[in-house]
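Work Package 4 report. The design task specified in the project plan requires that, given a folded chain encoded as structure tokens, an amino acid be chosen for each position. We show below one input record used in the internal validation round.
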């Protein structure tokens, strides 16, 4: 699982097919992807590899949609996320056109595969996928497509892997480099939330709170409800570990409502762990946890 091979040979010049730009392209990509959903993995791969009536599947919009779907699945089913990310990479490899154009698209898809493999616990595979993503991105440089995968995304993903492997100082340096590239907006908010997790892993809970407070200034909670929930959850975790239990408990009603609204098992599991930690710390102090 997670094996990435090289690109196929150069396609005929001028035969690149892609979705139209913007909303129309996303709509057509969604329609084609929806046709694959009921099929088994074997059928999906066969469809992408050769069925003529679905040649439109071989385009940037399809890769973007499959990558986004892989990210969505990562916190529900890591195996499904890997499958969809591998499909995105296969789509990218089959796009007709110049090799440099295709390399950028493959690099984009390989980044999603790295993220999915990390969610599946295959850290070695994730590192290989991200290294491949960077190499392909560089191979596609100069063709106007490098923007498909932004530098801060690579740095942020590398930071996750370093954190997972216990290389916390290295992860923190990568977070800092990523933040230098983004000054505002929800992307900076996401980077700061991830930096806060690394600071918490280092035991720097006060600094983690600072990163989360700055993230809140850049985040629209209605546009990014899951990221907002993660921010508030991490805020409660750091308050708890600083001994500020009452402040942490005050966030529980909001977190419960948010977890119910999001309807995801991942958030519910995180909330149960937080409630358990608060109860344990209150018990150790001889007090009772509030509801």
């Amino acid at each position: 699982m997670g094996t990435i091979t090289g690109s196929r040979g150069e396609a005929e010049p001028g035969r690149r097919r892609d979705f139209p730009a913007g909303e129309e392209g996303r709509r057509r990509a969604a329609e084609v992807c929806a046709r694959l959903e009921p099929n088994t993995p074997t059928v999906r791969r066969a469809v992408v590899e050769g069925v003529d009536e679905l040649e439109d599947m071989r385009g940037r919009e399809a890769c973007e949609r499959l990558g986004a779907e892989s990210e969505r699945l990562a916190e529900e089913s890591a195996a499904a996320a890997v499958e969809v990310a591998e499909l995105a990479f296969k789509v990218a490899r089959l796009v007709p056109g110049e090799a440099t154009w295709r390399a950028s698209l493959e690099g984009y898809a390989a980044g999603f595969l790295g993220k999915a493999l990390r969610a599946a616990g295959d850290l070695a595979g994730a590192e290989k996928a991200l290294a491949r993503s960077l190499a392909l991105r560089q191979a596609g440089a100069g063709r106007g497509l490098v923007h498909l995968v932004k530098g801060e995304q690579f740095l942020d993903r590398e930071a996750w892997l370093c954190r997972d492997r216990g290389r916390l100082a290295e992860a923190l340096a990568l977070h800092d480099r990523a933040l230098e590239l983004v000054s505002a907006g929800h992307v900076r908010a996401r980077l700061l939330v991830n930096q806060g997790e690394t600071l918490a892993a280092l035991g720097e809970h006060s600094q983690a709170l600072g990163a989360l407070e700055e993230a809140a200034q850049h985040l629209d909670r209605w546009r990014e409800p899951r990221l907002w929930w993660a921010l508030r959850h991490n805020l409660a975790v750091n308050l708890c570990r600083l001994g500020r239990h009452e402040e942490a408990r005050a966030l529980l009603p909001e977190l419960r409502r948010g977890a119910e609204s999001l309807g995801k098992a991942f958030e519910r599991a995180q909330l149960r762990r937080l409630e358990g930690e608060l109860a344990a710390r209150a018990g150790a102090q001889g007090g009772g946890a509030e509801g």
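The chain has a mean pLDDT of 77. Validation will be extended to a larger panel in the next phase.
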